[in-house]
Q: What sequence folds into this?
């Protein structure tokens, strides 16, 4: 099967500019948080810089503080705190404790833990232990056992050959993280998550596996037979 290799976008993200949002019929600070031009930028320490036409302030969402006079003097939940909360909810900026990263498959922005290492994936392309997946090359069904968290061109198989060097993986990105999975037919009828690590697993680049059902094994009760496709 021919499958176009996924190459993430490599161009830098544009600089965030001040924007406005719909007022949504609100009044007071809630309205100003949406209608006044602001640019929100996350900092490495989990706080946010908010640039406005009237000044630049630092917001700490966890501590619920802002360096603006409205908060410092009146101890109010100022428009800057509100704007940061709005942009976090909208997915415009990462929540505290997370940072922006580029999905290794599609190149879209995603939010990951601050200490995350190696190639990262967005929600549409990540896999979890227990997920039922489809092998694009063979049509087989497998169950994911674990994430390797290394690139396909850095990860050997049990024979010592790099995952990226297998002919059947030629159409998938060398930069993609690797997942281990077991063939559905090899699972005992009463298998649970704890059993997956004891079965013979094979390694695949991320985009070779397409998700069929999240939590396929973990969602079942112990002793409940696995439905065979």
A:
């Amino acid at each position: 099967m021919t499958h176009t290799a996924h190459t993430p976008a490599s161009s830098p993200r544009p600089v965030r500019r001040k924007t406005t949002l719909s007022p949504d019929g609100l009044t007071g600070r809630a309205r100003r948080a949406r209608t006044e031009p602001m640019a929100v930028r996350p900092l490495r320490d989990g706080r946010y810089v908010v640039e406005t036409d009237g000044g630049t302030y630092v917001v700490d969402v966890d501590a619920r503080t802002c360096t603006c006079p409205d908060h410092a003097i009146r101890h109010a939940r100022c428009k800057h705190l509100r704007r940061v909360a709005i942009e976090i909810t909208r997915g415009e900026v990462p929540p505290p404790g997370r940072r922006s990263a580029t999905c290794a498959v599609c190149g879209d922005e995603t939010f990951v833990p601050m200490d995350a290492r190696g190639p990262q994936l967005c929600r549409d392309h990540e896999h979890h232990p227990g997920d039922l997946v489809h092998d694009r090359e063979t049509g087989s069904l497998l169950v994911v056992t674990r994430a390797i968290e290394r690139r396909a061109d850095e990860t050997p198989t049990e024979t010592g050959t790099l995952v990226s060097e297998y002919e059947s993986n030629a159409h998938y990105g060398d930069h993609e993280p690797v997942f281990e999975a077991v063939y559905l037919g090899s699972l005992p009828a009463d298998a649970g998550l704890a059993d997956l690590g004891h079965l013979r697993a094979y390694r695949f680049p991320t985009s070779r596996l397409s998700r069929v059902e999240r939590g396929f094994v973990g969602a079942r009760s112990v002793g409940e037979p696995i439905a065979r496709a």
About this structure: The first helix runs from residue 28 to 35. The first strand starts at residue 38 and ends at 42. Confidence is low (pLDDT under 50) at residues 220-229. Residues 56 and 189 are 60 Å apart (CA to CA).
